Amino acid sequence: xxxxxxxxxxxxxxxxxxxxxxxxxxxxxxxxxxxxxxxxxxxxxxxxxxxxxxxxxxxxxxxxxxxxxxxxxxxxxxxxxxxxxxxxxxxxxxxxxxxxxxxxxxxxxxxxxxxxxxxxxxxxxxxxxxxxxxxxxxxxxxxxxxxxxxxxxxxxxxxxxxxxxxxxxxxxxxxxxxxxxxxxxxxxxxxxxxxxxxxxxxxxxxxxxxxxxxxxxxxxxxxxxxxxxxxxxxxxxxxxxxxxxxxxxxxxxxxxxxxxxxxxxxxxxxxxxxxxxxxxxxxxxxxxxxxxxxxxxxxxxxxxxxxxxxxxxxxxxxxxxxxxxxxxxxxxxxxxxxxxxxxxxxxxxxxxxxxxxxxxxxxxxxxxxxxxxxxxxxxxxxxxxxxxxxxxxxxxxxxxxxxxxxxxxx
Length: 410
What we know:
seven-stranded mixed sheet; four-stranded parallel sheet
C-alpha cells in the first residue's frame, strides 16, 4: 500500500526509524524470485551485514476526507464516554448517533434509517456485544454473534455497507476512530507447519508483500510484528498439527502460538490488519481485547471454522473458511478499504449459497431462529471485523492476485 498525501493527515505524518534486534534468531524468509526478501535484509541490516537497507517506514493518520464518510453508532458506554466519542466524531467530521436499544434489531433499524448512500461509506460500532448488541448465533451448542446482518443498509437481505466494531477503554476506542497507519509492505504468517505448503506465501508475494513465517511467537519477534502491515494466522493442514483457536490464544497441540499476554508486549506502529482463521478467536475474550488495546484491526470468527472437504474452482462457491480466506486475499487488490473487502466477500459467498443454507440465514434475519445447522451457513456469516472499516486496504506495490482452484488442504 502506497499512501498518498490525500490519504494522510500531513500535520500528523511521521517517519519511524526502526532498528530491529534479532539476536541468534532463525527466520524462514520467502524470497521473491531470486531477490532477497525485505525482512531478510532488515535482519541483516540490524546486525551490520547490510548498509543499504532503509529501515524507515511512513506512518500517518487517515485523511479527514476519508473519515468523514463514517457513520458512528455508539452503544451504552456511559454518559462521559459517549460525550468523548461524540466530540471525536465531530473532530474527524463523522456523523454520530447514540443507540441505547437492547437488541440488534434496534441497532439495524437505526442504521437503515441513518445511513445515507453517497455520503456514508462505512459504519463504526462503538461498544461490546453487551453495550451494542450484535446478532446472537449458536452452532452445535456454542454461542457466538455476528455483525453480518448490520451490513445490510438497504433491507434486501444481503450485505452492502462495511461495518466495524470497537470496544474497550476510551483511549482504545479513540485510537481506532482515528488510527495511525503504517506503509511497510511487510506481512507475517503464523503457520505451525511451515514448508508443508507455500500457497499462502505465494498469495502474499503476489499482493506485493515481503513475507516472514513464524511457527509461534517469541519475544524476539515483537519488533518485527510491530512494523508489520498485515498479519495472518492460517489453520490448514493435518487437524492434530494445525493452529486452533480459543478466545484466549492461538494454539497447536504442541505449544501456544500466540496469546493475549504476548500481544500486550507488542508495540504495533501502524494499525496492522490481523486475520485469524482459527475457531472462536473473535469472541470478546482476552486475545481480541489485547489486539484492540494494542491498536490492531482484527478479523476473525466467533464460532468454529471449517475446512472444505472437496475442491472448488472458485472461492465464492466455497462456503468454508478457505473460501472466505482466499476471497479476502483476492479482493484486497480490488477495493480501497478493508471494510469494503470484508463486506464484498460476505456478499459473494451468500449470493452463491445453496437455497437451503440461505434459508438458515434468512430465518435468523427474520427472528425465527438463532441456531445454525450447517457449516456452510456458519462459514458465511460468522466473520466479524473489529476495527475501523475505513482503514486502507493492505497491499504492496504492483499487487495482482487471483486464487484459482480452492484445494482440499487438510
